[in-house]
């Protein structure tokens, strides 16, 4: 099962330097430092296989396991040796630090044994070859952790697919979390999440021979942080279960228990003998969720919505700049589509709607004049709009000239537009609009009041004929409105 949040467009005016730096660093470590590990490991294993070491050490290790009461593991490794899987036995032996400590101390292959000197020379040569394997030196052995490997393991990866998958997910969620927490906060979360991911593996090591490597534990912390930052806000997710996949909007925080439960199911039910560190993912999720919950509590439950708002403002500013550059160069056909995108991004920006209509009328080939006029009327009907009445008149004229219908607005919105036209003295346009609204308002919610206002306005400017004509329409269509008659 796969569930991932769908990314929003990054705000490159505030680049996620830490996210990009971590991705770059992991790629450099993999290509430069881990790039020759496979060759070096093959060289070391080939040397081991052709030396006296397998004949002396591996049987001694199996005997030692039985002496320590680990008959099942001894039997399992004996079967592996019978199938020429000596490498597995070797890896398990070298992860058994109690045995290796006694081996190095000369307590397993002792000085009294005739092959001791040859064994020691071959062992020293073999260990020098293994020390050249970068991944082995810096991956985390849960049974023998060091301060260095607790941190270094999260920047190592097993193969290209492992690296690519982790880096894609890190970028998808990383830039939003970094924008919310800040660069240093995000870096702390990543490292702390990686350390938290180690805890389950240290307490419950999978088996001898297993090493931890990869950024997935730290990235799990970032993923959990992403969910906690958005809280119960619905965001879009992509999910894939067996043969079913789709996108869906869910409350962000509701996905966290799904992710946690999935890791436990994979570990203890579906993939019990797999090589994936599911408990490390589990630990990373918990660490990231707890740290981010603490952060939100400390910041008054600040969420990632503020980040999205800042990103939207930056994108709008970028669109304004692009449009202004095209207008300055008289490329109105290019500016008009940008203003169209701008009013969708900033639906409360009166200036953007005004510029859109102005530029669209200067670029008829763009075919956006009618759209700009309809959108300006939509904006004019909002209670917080202060668009100049002359622009409303222009929009009405453009719609009439195009022979298209008025936009579908609420009666309340049309009432606001008509009143503003009457108050501004735009009586002809107001009359044209009010007459259309009469047919749209058979119940008389706004039309009678508008007819009454228009009639009085005509009379106030010395046009009694128009005033009487408007009053007659009011009497004929709404005879029950005695308060206005």
Written description of the protein model:
The chain is mainly alpha-helical and about 475 residues long. The chain folds into 4 domains: about 1-25 and about 150-300, Up-down Bundle (Rhomboid-like fold), CATH 1.20.1540; about 35-135; about 305-380; about 410-485, Alpha Horseshoe (Serine Threonine Protein Phosphatase 5, Tetratricopeptide repeat), CATH 1.25.40. It has helices at about 15-35, 35-50, 55-65, 70-80, 85-95, 95-105, 115-130, 135-140, 145-150, 160-180, 185-205, 215-230, 255-270, 280-300, 305-330, 330-345, 350-360, 370-380, 390-400, 410-425, 425-440, 445-460, 465-475, and strands at about 1-5, 235-240, 245-250. Strands 1-2-3 form a 3-stranded antiparallel sheet. A hairpin with a 2-residue loop joins strand 2 and strand 3. Helix 3 runs antiparallel to helix 4 (about 70-80), helix 17 (about 350-360) packs antiparallel against helix 18 and helix 18 packs across helix 19. It is elongated, with a radius of gyration of 36 Å. The mean pLDDT is about 90.
Counting DSSP E segments of at least 2 residues, the number of strands comes to: 3
| CATH level 3 topology of the largest domain | Rhomboid-like fold
The portion of residues forming beta strands comes to under 5%
* H/E element order: EHHHHHHHHHHHHEEHHHHHHHHHHH
Q: What's the story with the biggest beta sheet? A: 3 strands, antiparallel
Q: pLDDT average, as an integer?
A: 88
Strand order of the largest sheet: 1-2-3
Radius of gyration: 36 Å
Structural class: mainly alpha
The CATH class of the largest domain turns out to be Mainly Alpha
Low-confidence stretches: none
C-alpha end-to-end distance: 71 Å
Number of domains: 4
Broad shape:
elongated
